[in-house]
From TrEMBL:
GO terms for biological process: response to arsenic-containing substance. NCBIfam families: MSMEG_6209_Nter. Residues 90-215 form the Phosphotyrosine protein phosphatase I domain. Keywords: Arsenical resistance. It comes from Microbacterium schleiferi. This is Arsenate reductase ArsC. CDD domains: LMWP_ArsC.
Length: 222
């Protein structure tokens, strides 16, 4: 995982329709990052992000859209790392193994309670194929929709741009960069659990997210 994708990196197979979708995404991102990144950099990140996601995608139809979303996150992270986009807004990265349950629930609560007063990202050391449907269900019970999220890997620029990295069970696979705030949340992996089993984990995650926001000086909007 590198900050700048290698221009010779092998790309996943792309259909004509998907290539057209990526070209449209590149146009949008080029306008969005005008004055910060050129088209070559944007194309690199788009194709690298596509490769990362295509390996485990279960619904290829949505790949260009998910790729654009992932590439946008990576480009924003790189801009922050390079000192080109410093807003002072706290940024937190939630990491677990599959980025399908715990880290996605944490991100959902973080975004719900922080609003635009903080930035939240998530990733996995071994991303799964889809968000755990039971996690989606129990979060919906709290009025939080995480169905549109998707498992994705962490990348160097995203970790380096985060002010705090919250890890949940990824162990030695979790990235370590000196000088960053790291916190391990010891929580059971709820993969395969029923809603009744997952709800206590969900509630504990919310409690920890609220404590984290308080420590960061970010008031909860709930």
């Amino acid at each position: 995982m590198t900050t700048m994708p290698d221009e010779h990196e092998r790309h996943a197979t792309i259909t004509i329709d998907q290539e057209a979708g990526l070209a449209t995404s590149a146009e949008r991102l080029t306008r969005e990052f005008e004055g910060t990144f050129g088209r070559e950099t944007i194309d690199r990140f788009l194709h690298a992000s596509y490769t990362d996601l295509a390996a485990r995608a279960t619904v290829p139809t949505y790949l260009p859209l998910l790729t654009e979303k992932f590439a946008r996150q990576r480009l924003r992270a790189l801009a922050k790392v390079d000192g080109m986009h410093l807003t002072g807004t706290p940024t937190v990265l939630f990491l677990c193994v599959h980025n399908a349950g715990r880290s996605q629930m944490a991100l959902g609560f973080f975004q719900h309670h922080a609003g635009d007063r903080a930035i939240g990202w998530s990733g996995g050391s071994e991303p799964g194929e889809q968000i755990n449907p039971v996690a989606v269900q129990v979060m919906a019970e709290r009025g939080i929709d995480i169905a549109g999220e998707f498992p994705k890997p962490w990348t160097d620029e995203i970790v380096r741009a985060a002010d705090a990295v919250i890890t949940m069970g990824c162990g030695d696979a979790c990235p370590i960069f000196p000088g960053k705030r790291y916190e391990e949340w010891t929580l059971p992996d709820p993969a395969g659990w029923t809603p009744d089993g997952m709800r206590p984990v969900r509630d504990e995650i919310e409690r920890r997210v609220l404590n984290l926001l308080a420590e960061l000086g970010v008031p909860s909007r709930a």
